[in-house]
Specification:
Oligomer: single chain
Structural class: alpha/beta
Shape: elongated
Strand content: 5-15%
CATH superfamily of the largest domain: SPOUT methyltransferase, trefoil knot domain
Largest sheet: 7 strands, parallel
CATH topology of the largest domain: Alpha/beta knot
Strand order of the largest sheet: 3-2-1-6-4-7-5
Helix content: 25-40%
Bound molecules: S-adenosylmethionine
CATH class of the largest domain: Alpha Beta
Length: 211
């Protein structure tokens, strides 16, 4: 909390809730706030939280109609936007497969706009994911540019697990082969593909519609 933070009922509430839950209030000067926030004109109150990762075997698939698995997502802005979109659409969380960017980097957390507190984040390997996938109770839907099924025509059994590929290389053959179906969003113009976060948004809303 900045030394110059003005009194406000919401700040009072936040302070009480923090101390009641074992948190600590630290009053600092502006230079420290600037350094921690990496901004020249920072807010006067910042929150510091422990990073949380849900282990793969602790995910309850049936707690949400849809989940998103991302293979080697590299852009933290994409990842944060996807977390925000999962929250908005009512998806349970994201599963990060193999070498992904950090969901708790400054850029990713900013792009979540607070949704990082609402959806679960899991890290895993391809091998562990493929073993766990065998127990998935609903549809597993891959997204590929070379798929022949239109994304609106694929049969969906909830909970649906949507697999999205890397920004450059797309979804690998190994993961695509583990899906019940692979689908494509039609590309009607000259662009060869959609941005990963946009494609994920289209898929999550399509799959959760009417769930
Ligand atoms: C930028 S695209 C990857 C493009 C890559 N050059 C390729 O050949 O797959 C990133 C991811 O977004 C999803 N995606 C993008 N456009 C799509 C489309 N039209 N249909 C299905 N998935 C799409 C896929 O999951 C893809 O792996």
């Amino acid at each position: 909390m900045g030394q110059d933070a003005r009194p406000h009922p919401l700040l009072d509430r936040a302070v009480k809730a923090t101390t009641a839950n074992g948190g600590e209030i630290i009053t600092v000067n502006r230079a420290i706030l600037e350094k921690v926030s990496r901004k020249e004109n920072p807010q006067t109150v910042l929150g510091v939280f422990q990073q949380v990762f849900t282990p793969l075997d602790k995910i309850n698939p049936r707690s949400s109609p849809a989940w998103v698995a991302l293979e080697q997502v590299r852009d933290p802005g994409n990842l944060g936007t996807i977390i925000r979109t999962c929250d908005a659409a009512g998806a349970g969380g994201v599963i990060l497969i193999d070498d992904c960017c950090d969901p708790y980097s400054v850029e990713a957390v900013r792009a979540t706009m607070g949704s990082v507190f609402a959806v679960s984040v899991t890290k895993t390997t391809t091998d562990a994911f493929l073993t766990w996938r065998e127990t998935w109770p609903g549809s597993v839907i891959g997204t590929r540019l070379d798929a022949t099924h239109d994304y609106r025509a694929a049969p969906v059994e909830h909970p649906a697990l949507i697999l999205m590929g890397n920004e450059q290389a797309g979804l690998t053959d190994r993961l695509a082969a583990a899906c019940d179906v692979n689908v494509k969003i039609p590309m009607r113009g000259r662009a060869d593909s959609l941005n990963l976060a946009i494609a994920t948004g289209i898929m999550v809303y399509a799959v959760t519609e009417g769930s």
